[in-house]
Write a sequence for this structure.
């Protein structure tokens, strides 16, 4: 079926006034249609983080519903998370994916580790924090080659966001995957809300949104 936009941002995308996701976020208009993300990020990927069965007792008997938590990202600067409930598994997951697309954010990446200095935006630009419920997470920039030294849930978010290397520390009840994922998402959001001067951006090669990362191969002397 042909998509008929119902919002101003959707009309701007359909008319060709907005051609990238970075431009869509920069407009400041609310993102209320998942089709906007599908058009601007055709290579977006999704992953189910958590799927639980929720039971509720009523006068008519026991009702069973499913709660799904999903993340979406293009592997190059954009990440989103969403949660949804439903009577069936499939519709619940699709609804959670659509909500994740509506919550998509644009993150910053850089070479923030003092041990590296390669100049490519492969890791976090600075230390970030996130907290949801009892879960508190801290992520720090790592030198190139360390990979993602974080938990499995955080690794999924970092991979879809396009971060290659990072150190991570978490405390609290991290077995609750939903809180861990939300705390990690809040930490990634911190990269977009933190103000960075032009001098800092040049020194650490901090870039916002999609970038083409050209990582040079390690030579024998560098190894």
């Amino acid at each position: 079926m042909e998509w008929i936009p119902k919002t101003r941002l959707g009309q701007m995308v359909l008319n060709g006034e907005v051609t990238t996701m970075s431009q869509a976020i920069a407009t400041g208009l609310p993102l209320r249609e998942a089709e906007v993300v599908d058009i601007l990020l055709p290579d977006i990927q999704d992953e189910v983080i958590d799927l639980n069965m929720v039971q509720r007792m009523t006068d008519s008997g026991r009702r069973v519903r499913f709660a799904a938590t999903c993340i979406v990202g293009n592997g190059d600067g954009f990440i989103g998370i969403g949660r949804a409930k439903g009577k069936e598994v499939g519709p619940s997951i699709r609804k959670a994916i659509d909500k994740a697309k509506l919550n998509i954010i644009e993150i910053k990446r850089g070479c923030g580790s003092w041990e590296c200095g390669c100049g490519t935006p492969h890791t976090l630009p600075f230390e970030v924090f996130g907290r949801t419920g009892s879960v508190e997470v801290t992520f720090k920039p790592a030198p190139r080659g360390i990979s993602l030294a974080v938990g499995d849930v955080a690794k999924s978010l970092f991979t879809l966001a396009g971060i290659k290397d990072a150190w991570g520390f978490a405390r609290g009840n991290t077995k609750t995957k939903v809180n861990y994922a939300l705390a990690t998402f809040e930490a990634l959001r911190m990269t977009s809300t933190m103000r960075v001067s032009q001098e800092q951006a040049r020194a650490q090669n901090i870039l916002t949104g999609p970038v083409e990362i050209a990582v040079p191969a390690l030579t024998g002397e560098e190894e």
